[in-house]
Design a protein that fits this description.
CATH topology of the largest domain: Aminopeptidase
Order of helices and strands: HEEEHEHEEHEHHEEEHEHE
Helix content: 25-40%
Number of domains: 2
Number of strands: 12
Keywords: Transferase
Shape: globular
CATH class of the largest domain: Alpha Beta
Structural class: alpha+beta
Protein name: GNAT family N-acetyltransferase
Distance between the termini: 37 Å
Largest sheet: 12 strands, mixed
CATH architecture of the largest domain: 3-Layer(aba) Sandwich
GO molecular function: acyltransferase activity, transferring groups other than amino-acyl groups
InterPro entries: Acyl_CoA_acyltransferase, BioF2-like_GNAT_dom, GNAT_dom
Organism: Streptomyces shenzhenensis
Oligomer: single chain
CATH superfamily of the largest domain: Gcn5-related N-acetyltransferase (GNAT)
Strand content: 25-35%
């Protein structure tokens, strides 16, 4: 993989030329910033910036003013290769709170399919497509248990997206009997090279049994069916080790910086 070329494609497809991720969202562009504005339950934030040392502080202040006037908390999605090099410290000085750093990892979809061809869930576990309200509820249930957060916003986003554009979202859930023990989703942006793997989580007592790998395999096949060459993940350290074995390459870092949350 040509890391520099793939990162340039990623910046163009998913950041500079970003599309709204739901029917209640819109993308706004200026010469130096691309941002999404959504409803109270949607994702609000800065996707891309092309700043320099002289204009960065004014641009940061402008985004704060814009979202504050809308009554929205928002995220500045900072990538490790963004400029200026001290953009992270400038965001913190302006009142943003950084979340844990993640690693942007990308793989060729075909390679992931090949490396997970033998992936199967543990005995007694079945994997289902969560394509209705009941399925979404199971995905949210796992999300709340694994990540310890309220799933109301996620529930709203998934249901809204499935209703407006069902082909853009593939959510899967693993069931042990009637218990949802693992869940994840694939977000597909038509016309781009990339599909994103999001929200992968497994209940603690079910980890280490191959569920994460199995759900990656399901989503890789779905991405291939939709014509996406690459899979993209923002990975925490625990996931990174597994993803590297599945053909994923680390391209840069991404650190969410939150304001007003």
């Amino acid at each position: 993989m040509d890391h520099a070329a793939v990162l340039a494609h990623y910046d163009r497809d998913l950041r500079k030329d970003a599309r709204p991720d739901g029917p209640d969202a819109r993308i706004e562009r200026s010469a130096t910033v691309v941002r999404q504005v959504a409803g109270a339950h949607g994702w609000n934030g800065v996707l891309w910036s092309g700043l320099d040392g002289t204009g960065a502080d004014a641009a940061i202040a402008g985004q704060i003013e814009h979202y504050t006037a809308l009554g929205r908390a928002f995220e500045w999605k900072l990538h490790g290769h963004d400029l200026p090099a001290d953009l992270g410290s400038r965001l913190v000085a302006a009142g943003f709170t950084p979340e844990p750093e993640e690693t942007l990892m990308v793989a060729e979809t075909a390679e992931v399919i090949a490396l997970t061809a033998d992936a199967e869930p543990p005995e007694g576990v079945r994997v289902l497509r969560a394509d209705g309200a009941a399925g979404v509820e199971r995905v949210v249930e796992v999300h709340e248990k694994v990540f310890g957060v309220d799933g109301g916003g996620l529930r709203h986003r998934l249901l809204t997206r499935l209703a407006a554009d069902p082909g853009s979202l593939v959510a899967v859930v693993a069931l042990a009997g009637d218990e949802a023990v693992s869940a994840a989703r694939l977000e597909s942006v038509t016309g781009t090279r990339f599909a994103g793997l999001w929200g992968g989580g497994t209940l603690e007592h079910w980890r280490g049994r191959g569920l994460y790998r199995t759900l990656v395999a399901h989503r890789a096949r779905a991405a291939a069916a939709r014509g996406h060459r690459y899979l993209q993940v923002d990975a925490l350290p625990m996931s990174r080790r597994v993803l590297e074995r599945l053909g994923f390459h680390a391209l840069t870092t991404t650190t969410p910086h939150l304001y007003g949350a």
